[in-house]
Structures are given as structure tokens and as C-alpha cells.
Amino acid sequence: MIEKVTLQMSENGKFRTADGAGCDTMNPKALLLYAAAQCAAQTALMIMRKERIAPKRFEIGFSGELSTQELRSESVFTSFHVVYNVECGSEDDQAKVSRAIVLTHEKHCGLVRMLRMIAPVSHEVAVVSTEPAKA
């Protein structure tokens, strides 16, 4: 079974669940994914801000494969996968955003690093620009 949490950045730079669910409605395994997604998203955003980049849209999906076909208390995570989707204003910002995400995922996010001690953590990055392509 796969457990998944998706967060979207709001206009004030805070990350909320895409479906509007609160922590009080999440099971403990989803809460772990929520905490990891918050950590990765906030870390990446901090690095982007240091580079003076303000993403127009930022969404992060954090999923985990469980050892059982249905959610049980004894279920454990066997792998994790993170999907980073960012929309920025210019093509020049795309490389900086990609670098910020790689730094976040590989080095600076403590929860991603901790989850790697439990199971493999893979990721994919999609960074798009709203600026028209240069001819």
C-alpha cells in the first residue's frame, strides 16, 4: 500500500495539504510523511529565498510504500518517493531552483536524511518557467 501527502504553497509562503486535511485527521504514518514534506518544502524555500527567488507555485508530494496491503499498526515503510513541482518566473531561475531542491534533498533536510536510514528515498523534480522561451 502507498500512503501519500501532497502540500501546496499558499500566497503567504506557508505549506498546506492539497486536500485541506488537517493533522488531526491524519493517521500516524501520514503524519510522518506530512512532517517530512513540510521539512523539505520549507528547507527548499529557504534556500530559494537566499538566492532571491520567489517561486510562483510550489507543490511537494511525499509518498511511502508500506509493507502491508492495508494500513495496520505493524506496517512499516519500505521506500519513500518525493515529487517536487515548482513554477518560477524566468528560465534563469530554473537552474537555481533545481539546485536548491537537490541541496535540500541530498544535504539540508534533516527528515529526508533521517528517513534514508529507514528505507531508500527517491525523488523527481519538475521546474517550469512562465517566461516565454528565448528565440
From TrEMBL:
It comes from Alistipes senegalensis JC50. Pfam families: OsmC (PF02566). It comes from the Bacteria. Gene3D superfamilies: 3.30.300.20. This is OsmC family protein. Signal peptide: none annotated. InterPro entries: KH_dom-like_a/b, OsmC/Ohr_fam, OsmC/Ohrsf.
